[in-house]
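Late entry, written up from scratch paper. The run itself happened at the end of the previous shift, but nothing got recorded in the book at the time, so transcribing now.
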Amino acid sequence: MSDLRTKLQHIDPNLKAQDIKAFMDQKGATNIYEALNVIAKRAGLLANDLKIELNNKLEEFAVTPDRIEEIIENKEQIEISKFYERLPNPTVIATHEFLNGMLDFEYRDRDGNKIEKE
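Output as recorded:
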């Protein structure tokens, strides 16, 4: 995930009701269940990427204090955490990407060969 600030800045983090027909109007999606499956898989990937990115950024601040009382507050660490808390839910991001045609998907068999849809 590169430059999350600019990529996710215009996405509203609040959930909104969506028109079901809009999901099926996207290329490749033949029914609502197929569209939701694509969104769910993308949301899972986003959640994993965001978790890894946050953990990598917070590792810089990892300190092993000798005693519990020695915990130090770091303002930069707090700002990073607040930024990630304010990000839209991965499902909201994935839905936005799907409805705006930013996702391409295809089906593959167990051997990894592309399956052509009829």
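The first helix runs from residue 4 to 8.
(Scratch paper discarded after transcription.)
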